[in-house]
Structure formats: C-alpha cells, structure tokens
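Q: Fold this one first, please.
A: Sequence and structure below.
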Amino acid sequence: MAEEAGRELDGMEAAVLTAEKRVAELPLNGRNAMQLMELQPGSAANPGSVVLGGSAGGNTAFVNGQRNRANNFMLDGTDNNDQFTAGRVAINPNVDVIQEFRVSTNNFSAEFGRNSASAVNVVTKAGTNQYHGTAYEFVRNDSFDSKSVLAPKKDPLKFNQFGATNGGAIVKDKLFYFAAYEGLRLTRGTTLVRTVETPELRQLVSQLYPSSIANFLFKSFPSPNPTSNIRDTGRPVTGLQTQNILNDSSVATNPNYVATGGGLYRNALQTTPDGIPDLGTANVPLSERTNANQFSIRLDH
C-alpha cells in the first residue's frame, strides 16, 4: 500500500493495515500493540485491555459487536491465541519488531476461518544487508501522579520499560537476522475499597461461636478495621438468611423466621439491630511487582 495505514478491499474482504511507521509513532499504553485494534472501524475498547507493560496482551477489543473471544490472532501467519484464556494473545510482540499490523473484520478468506469477529495478523521485521538497531527506555513514576480521591496518599508507581533491537545480514544476500529484547520493571500500588467486619463483630462471634467457621476465618485471615460507613446490620445468629419450607419443614416453627409467602421464610433475627456495629468500609493498600523479559529473534534465508 502507498499509505502508512489504510483500509483494504480485497474482493469482499474488509481489512485495515497499520504499517511500521504508524505502529511506532502511535501512543500505546504500556507499548501494548493490541490496542491498535481499537482504532479499527467496528471496534469497541475493552475495559480489561489496559495492560501496563509486560508480554501479556490483556483482554482485546470487541469487534463487530462480538465478544473478544471471537478474535483470531496470528504472528507471522502462525497461531498466536492464548490456549488457556480465549480473547487474548499468547505473545504480545515488542512494538519495535512489528512491520505490519493487519486487522481483517469482514468476509475474510477461508485461511482465517478459526473465529468470526476479526483476524489479527502481526508481521515482524526481517533483517537486511544493512545493519540497523534501536535502543529505548520509557519511565513513569508516582512523581507525575496525583492521589486517588479516597486514598490517604498517592499509590506508589515505578515503571521502567526498556529494550533494544538489531538486524542485519549474517551472510550477505542469503542469511539475515533480526533480534530484539524488551524488559519491564514495574512496582505499583493500588487501593481497594472493601466491605469488612468490625472488631466488635469479630469479638462477639468469638464469644458466642468459638468453634464456628466464621471465628476460624476471622482469626486466621484478619482484615483491616473499617474507617467509614460503619453500620449495624443485625445479629450474628445461625441459620440461612432465607429458607424454603420444602427444604426444611422446621423453619415454620422456628421463632427466628417469618413467612414471606410462597413457602419462603426470612431469618428476621439476622436483620434485627443489636447495638453492635457489624460492617464498614476499609481502604486496603496492595503492592504489585512485575519483572518481565521478552527475547525474540527471526532468521530469514
């Protein structure tokens, strides 16, 4: 094609080709090449596709109204689908090794008959008689960020993505190579907002039901204390919250249950406030570390 990126019409097939220069220049979060799918007509971004670096492609875009698992991925014409998680690529290549990124979205030929939404074929670079190479590093850290609204401080972030490529001839006019390396060093934190039990509830369960599974879980896996939205939701009494008389006929004579119609009974005592705060909201800080390395080499004869 004469253009760097454009729409192809080969017979009845509709496809979009993104060439090397456009692939290298477009801003891609975490250098995730699969985000180029979201620029194609008929594609919609997947919230799970944001991957901060690494070799995993994340969840890919929705194409022509179909699920992301209906996409078919190829690398130099070979199968590149994750065999364990549908809708993901097995290898997300380094952006600097991509020669072409082609997305076929409609009426593609039988060679792409594995899936129905799109066929994504990535072609990697080959070496030439001239030696060429690149080197790069991308840095992001929390010095450039602001804190989340509910977080007491900024989440830590240290992001370094670096690499190099080199290509040339081993034997002039006969044997060529193209090699690449990309590394990722990522340390980041995030704050989860979760509903947790209060110390008062844990203490009450320990006193009333010392041999219960709840008491075992409270002691073995303690949660942080809530700091907001603390409320009294009821009493910690045994029994299901809702019971059917067909499953347990004794529920009709159990004073803790009240009939709600249709043979169903509700454990009213569980929702009766007892003056003890039971649940609340806590901000849970987590830390994540990622060390990833990707090596690739291509030989052409």
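Q: Good. Now the second chain.
A: Here it is, same layout.
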Amino acid sequence: MGGAAGGATGAGGAPATGGAGPPQCAHNLDCPAGNICHAYDRTCVPRPNANSVFVTSAQYTGLLGGLAAADAICAARATAAALPGTFIAFLSTSQVNAKTRISSARGWIQTDGLPFADTVDALFLPNAHVFYPLQANEFGDPVPPGQYVLSGTNPDGTTSTNTCVDWTADGLFRGGVTGGSGYMWAYNVDASCFPLNMRLVCMQTSGAGQVAPVSPPATRRLAFITSTAHLSGGGLSAADTHCASDAATAGLPGTYKALLAVTGASALSRFNAGTAPWYRPDNVRIADSTADFAAGKLWAPISVTANGRTEITNNAVWTGAPTPLTAATADSSCTSWTSAAASSVAAVGLSSKIDKNYFDYTLADKRWTEACNFDSSHLYCLQE
C-alpha cells in the first residue's frame, strides 16, 4: 500500500487520521495503552470508538474444534494484542449464520485505524460495500492480499454447506480473501479444510459507533468504475462520454476520462500526473499519488461507481496494456477501442484488486484478455 490513507469517524465524530511527522510506531504495541498505530503515517492515535475487526496473524486448518473453539482463538488473539471488548470468529455452521452472530453490532474499524464497514448489511449482498479491504492482523500489521480466510458463509451472509463439518473434520470450506472488495472478504473460494494456511476474521461485537471515512483533502482527485459495462467499437471518445455521463448523473465536480491505453499512448498519459492523492466518491483513498496509481500500490480497489454507494465487485475492466504507463498495441486494445470483433481481444484488469492486477489481471502467469465483443467489461474513470 501507499503511505497514507483516510481514517474513520467514530460515534463521537472525532476523526482517527494519524498525525504529521515521521513514523512513531511499527505496530499497535509500540503505542501507549488505548492507542493504535494508524496506517495513515504510522503515528499513535487514540483507538476509535467503534468495534475492532482483524485477520489473525496465525494460520489454521479448518479443523478448529468447533465454533466455540474458534471464538476462543479470537478472544486469545485480541488479548495478546491488548484489544478490549468481546470478539467472536466470523464463521457460519449448519446451525447458525455468521451474519446472525454479528447482527446486534455496528461499525467496524480495522486495527490499523482504517474503516471496514458501518453496518451489517454493508458486509453482504445485495448491499455489499466495504470501505478499506480487510488486511490488518490483531497487532495492526498488514496481512498480504489474497490470503484465505475461513467463513463457511455465502455472499448474503447465510451458511454454506462447506463448513468443514462445522469446523470439526476434513472436507471443504467456503471462505474469503484478505484484500477482497465487496463481499469477497467472506466469499471467494471453496477449498480443502486441511492445509495449514487459513486465517480467521475476528470481529468485536461489544462496541458501538458509526463508521465512515474522513473527508478527503480539497486537492484530491476522483476515480470510479462505470455503473454499466462498456461496449468496445466507439473509440476513445465513446469511452470518455460514458465516464462523463456517469459523473454528471452523480453530480461529481470536474471532468472525467476513461483510463484506457491506445496505440502509441499509455492510459495515464491522458492525465496530469500531479501529486494529489486519488479517492473514490465514497471518500476512500485509492492511492497517494499518480506514481503509486501506476505502480499498483492501492489502499482500496477502484470498485465503487460515481454515486459512491454501488460496488462493482470482481468485474473485468478494459485497460488495453500491461501497465498504466505502457502504450497499447492494436492487438491489446481492440484497435484502440474501435473494434467489436469477436476475433480481436484487449487486455483487462479486475475491479477487486489492489495490486498491479487492478490494471493487468494475470492468473497462473497468463495475462487475461477478453474478446472485443465482450459485453460485461467496465471502465475506470479518472478526473482530469
């Protein structure tokens, strides 16, 4: 990730944003009691008045010994990190939905100070909309994206049939991934229960407080994903019109163009590099600078539409090149977006990613492309 990100507003309205100056801490135990090491700039700030949520630093199999044993693991990890309150494991079983287990709580902030979600409904379909993807452990240290987490839970928060026999025996588990947008923190994979490489999501249920990102600086620039898919064939101007239309409908300030490479020109060459940070319309910081944008060092995925509420999770996005700084070729950009032929292809990114895969999705060392007549790929739109 980059070096700064928006904080959260607790029930009392006080922003937890970190201070100025050099880093004071590496993780939360470096800070005085009642403080956390904020991801914004690694300074110690008061712990927000909200529920904490974290991914365990330790890894487990799906054979946890049952739900009560999993809750005990979360309680122990919270105690080890000096986190106050009551914590439970986010797990479903054949007898109870994980969503029901947290239904009486509201407002979760990660242990590094970044807001996760305000309400239970925001965690699941049909309203899935998390702020910063879940990837901090109990000590506030970052967990790499793409790590499996156990959940046994469907995208709507209900129980799956894949729960490692209620977390007691081998079989299959349903789970999410760290760094996942939308509902992907809880649902992204079905896999074997036995490998010792899964983590738990531990959620506090004893706190209270409304959670939201703090207001961005006036110098910020906005980026969003189109609310509908974009059909290739109209050239760059049609893509820019699509972005401008979405922005106008949402009442966003400024002018917007599509983040697309064309033959002879990179996607980011269409924009003023500048040093201003990039934000989503929901006030979540995407990247500290255009340089970080180019390098795939994102705080959060570009998965929210211009209205700031709707999340487009895990969708293909037209890009046209391996990086935002690389010019396209005719063969990687649907002939600069003028072709809609099924026989031609273009490079795509994935809207759920916070690394280079947001722009150039690579799976098993294979660069992902879509045919130019593909009707489900969206656009990234950036403010000029």
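Q: Anything worth noting on the second one?
A: The CA atoms of residues 62 and 193 lie 4 Å apart.
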